[in-house]
Every structure is written in C-alpha cells, then in structure tokens.
C-alpha cells in the first residue's frame, strides 16, 4: 500500500478536499453515481476513456474516504452497487459548481488546453440530456 512521504496538512480544508477529489476520474465518478448509475459495468460503459483498473482504484479510494459505499449482493452471478454516502452527497454542490464553471468557460478552455482539437473521453451527450436528481448536468 502507498505510504505518504510528506504528511498531509490537515489544518487546511483545501488540502483535505483536494485529497478526496484528487484523481482524473473521481469527480466524474461521483457525478455518475449521483445520477443513479450504480453498477460497475454501467459506470465503465459511461466512461469509455478510463481503464477498469484506474476506475476500480479510484472507486476504492472514494470508498476508503467514506464518500461512497459498496453494497455486495450475495447471489449468482455476484452483484455490486455503489451509492453516495451523506458525506459524498455533500460534495455534489462542489462537483456541480466545477461542472458549471467548465461549461461556462468551455470555448476558451478548449482553445488553451487543446488548441489542436479536443478529444472527449466521454461520448457527447451520455449524461447531457438526463434530469439528474433535480438538477440538469452536462459532462
């Protein structure tokens, strides 16, 4: 298991929040789980740009941080579902604000981040037309 060489400064809320959300897919995973996509196979299909290994590692980290829970149904074939904990649900306004900021500044950001063309990891519109838990999101 990974052991941190430099201790995390726990007196700073930004460091703690960054620690929880640090990872390429964590914010997107939380958004996907919040819109009622709970089975690992559904999550993997929704995020085709990510490998199963990376998604499983980040799901495990979110579970270890108490942000999501994993429920295992003992049946054949085995079934697993993820859901947000109350702590994870409290992160959704932050995720929504990040999503809104990215959508608002999309044109400029695409020019400076990927001037030669933007390759999307998520197919256009996968979650864009859903009504998500009372809020409208676009990945």
List keywords for this structure.
7 helices; Arc Repressor Mutant, subunit A; 139 residues; two-stranded antiparallel sheet; single chain
Largest sheet: number of strands, sense, barrel closure: 2 strands, antiparallel
What name does the CATH topology carry? Arc Repressor Mutant, subunit A
Helix content: 40-55%
Strand order of the biggest β-sheet: 1-2
Rg over alpha carbons: 16 Å
Number of domains: 1
Contiguous uncertain segments of 5+ residues? 122-126, 128-139
Number of strands: 4
Molecular shape: globular
> CATH top level?
Mainly Alpha
Element pattern in H and E: HHHHEEHHHEE
What proportion strand?
5-15%
Name the structural class.
alpha+beta
Please give the CATH architecture.
Orthogonal Bundle
Q: What's the mean pLDDT score?
A: 83
Number of helices: 7
Task: State the fourth-level CATH superfamily.
Answer: Winged helix-like DNA-binding domain superfamily/Winged helix DNA-binding domain
Distance between the terminal alpha carbons, to the nearest Å? 32 Å
Structure description:
45% of the residues lie in helices and 12% in strands. It is α+β, with helices and mostly antiparallel strands and 139 residues long. It has one domain (13-136): Winged helix-like DNA-binding domain superfamily/Winged helix DNA-binding domain (Arc Repressor Mutant, subunit A), CATH 1.10.10. The protein has a two-stranded antiparallel sheet with strand order 1-2. Residues 122-126 and 128-139 have low confidence and may be disordered.
Summary of the model, kept short:
This protein is an alpha+beta fold.
């Amino acid at each position: 298991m990974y052991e941190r060489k430099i201790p995390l400064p726990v007196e700073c809320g930004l460091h703690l929040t960054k620690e929880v959300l640090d990872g390429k897919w964590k914010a997107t995973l939380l958004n996907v789980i919040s819109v009622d996509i709970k089975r690992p196979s559904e999550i993997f299909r929704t995020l085709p740009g990510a490998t199963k290994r990376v998604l499983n590692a980040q799901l495990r980290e979110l579970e270890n941080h108490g942000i999501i829970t994993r429920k295992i149904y003992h049946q054949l074939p085995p079934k697993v579902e993820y859901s947000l904990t109350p702590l994870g649900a409290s992160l959704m306004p932050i995720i929504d604000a990040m999503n809104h900021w990215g959508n608002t500044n999309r044109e400029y950001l695409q020019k400076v981040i990927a001037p030669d063309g933007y390759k999307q990891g998520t197919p256009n519109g996968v979650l864009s037309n859903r009504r998500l838990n009372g809020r409208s999101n676009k990945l």
